[in-house]
Amino acid sequence: MSNQQQRRGLSRSPLDTVIPRGETVASFDTYSEAQRAVDRLAQADFPVKQVSIVGDGLKSVERVTGKLSYGRAAGAGALSGAWLGLFFGLLLVIINPASDLVFVGAAVLIGAAFGMMFTIVSYAVNRRRRDFTSVMQVLATSYAVTVSPELANRARNVLGGSQTEL
């Protein structure tokens, strides 16, 4: 990649932490609208490697999904432990084909028991600090579709007038 491309922010290494630079050709309120705009560009054979979706005004949003109790903690721990037990049980069957499927069932039950035990202990220690379950998200207040300056007019023509300019 040339230095000129890197200065414009068009480098595409997954480890890059440079904000993409270029001209904003459209702005949207939701990420899905910005995705649809990029899909339209891709369908028009636009060089999508030159396109970025940049979120602006990032906010951390935690949505509370329910109240946590010993019962819910035990159920969640048993379920995650059972999945781990199933994995190890199937791994045992793959490594030793002579073993019976009873081993898989035993591994699931043992995993569920240990998962439940560890989750209940963890919940008991942290109970008064966090008595609810939640899902954390990082959202933007707006999403800008940017392209390299030499392709901006072409992108605007493809997208038409269905977006808001910044």
Describe this structure in words.
The chain folds into two domains: 3-58 and 142-159, no CATH class; 63-136, no CATH class. It contains five helices and five strands. By secondary structure, it is an alpha+beta fold. Helix 3 runs antiparallel to helix 4 (102-126). The two termini are 29 Å apart. The radius of gyration is 25 Å and the shape is elongated. 46% of the residues lie in helices and 21% in strands. Mean pLDDT is 85; it is low at 162-166. Strands 1-5-2 form a three-stranded antiparallel β-sheet, with helices on one face. The chain has helices spanning 3-7, 31-43, 70-95, 102-126, 152-159; strands spanning 23-28, 51-56, 59-67, 132-139, 142-147.
Question: What are the defining features of this structure?
Answer:
disordered C terminus, 166 residues, 5 strands, alpha+beta
Please sum up the structure shown.
The chain is of the alpha+beta class.
